[in-house]
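Handout, page 2. Input:
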Amino acid sequence: MRNPLTHPAINFALTNRLPRALCTIAFGKLSRIRSRWLAAALVAIWRRSSDLDLSDSLRQEFTSLHDCFTRELKPGARIVSQEPGTLSSPCDAIVGAHGVVDDMTMLQAKGMPYRLEELLGSGASAERYRGATYVTLRLTAQMYHRFHSPANCRISHVDYVSGDCWNVNPPALERVPRLFCRNERAILHCQMDETGEPLALVAVAAILVASVRLRFADVLLHLRYRGTNPIACNHGAQRGEELGWFEHGSTIIVLAPPGWQLAQPHGTGARVRMGEVLLKAPGR
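Output:
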């Protein structure tokens, strides 16, 4: 018998029509309760109701549900490609909409466009990525939630944009216009060492998440951190270096230089693992 929660309309109603901010804050408090028996019980329920796989986790026992969400990997669990002229996937994910930023417009789903300057919070920032290649990477709740640098690069600054916490799964993307521009997000502006070209990672929070932690900036981004805020930094990152993590599951939008192409076979719906080649430079 089909699980009714998998029906798109029912899933959308249950995960978006409830008080999203209140549910997110309440879930955050529950997930941080430090109790080994409670964590074990919640993880057991989670594993029975999903495809959660902890075989590559550094730890198998957790003191809270939050510890499981933000788990680290065993050494060697991911191989980070060092192939020149490529960008590695910053995270484990499902590939969503991708293409070229055409007339400063992108797609979140078929027939659902949004503007780059609205996503990034300013027209000046958007101009750096005119004509860029974009790839949307969706992290499900069960996946490894940490994200890593896709190249050797320098992170010049981060723009934090306050917002809502809509779900970012396909039923929501097909129903909520400009969803990524509504949700809370952190934009990491980078410059690639290999070519000097700009590169951006847009970490979009979602319901039950709304919290992004950055390794190189001592600030916790969450629902109570208001406004559009620039966060100064000057961090040199190596390919595969951990940059931060989500508290649950969410989305990263990669903005690569014009002309870069999605590596095969990573089309829409494909699963990609952190460290695999995601994008290739022209002529590669």
